[in-house]
Amino acid sequence: MQIRAGQLDRPEVIALLREHLQGMAELSPPESIHALDLDGLQRPEISFWSAWDGEDLLGCGALKQLDAGHGEIKSMRTAQAHRRRGVAAAMLEHLLEEAARREYRRLSLETGSMDGFEPARRLYARYGFDYCGPFADYRDDPNSVFMSKAL
């Protein structure tokens, strides 16, 4: 597996991001969807990576800088054909390494509270993320779960 910076112009990545947004829409009401679209992922405070096996896209993830010491995980997605093969764990490890390289003191995330998000919550908990209250511009929402990890 190779994790590459960017690649937002690749058709495979664009299709995976569409799948991600569609999946969020199937599980969450519109007002509770915080996933970024292609334009949102191209903002200067966002860094995006995609995971590949040769020319086969495995998944993606992004890191948003909230301030000099705090980052947020965004757009974690594993391609359907590659689920349960360690792609999400590898991407999460990459994001944690990048957050440490940037000397963040905290890394946070928002995910859904519905059953469909349980695998993601278990993954984050396995890597030491604890449940917390809303951070940044988020508000309490019964459809959202917030998690954070001190680095």
From TrEMBL:
Name listed for the protein in its UniProt record: Histone acetyltransferase HPA2-like acetyltransferase
A molecular function GO annotation: acyltransferase activity, transferring groups other than amino-acyl groups
Translocase recorded as keyword: no
InterPro entries to which the protein is assigned, alphabetical: Acyl_CoA_acyltransferase (IPR016181), Bact_Acetyltransf (IPR050832), GNAT_dom (IPR000182)
Species per Swiss-Prot/TrEMBL record: Lysobacter enzymogenes
Keyword annotations: Acyltransferase, Transferase
PROSITE patterns: GNAT
Name of one Pfam family that matches: Acetyltransf_1
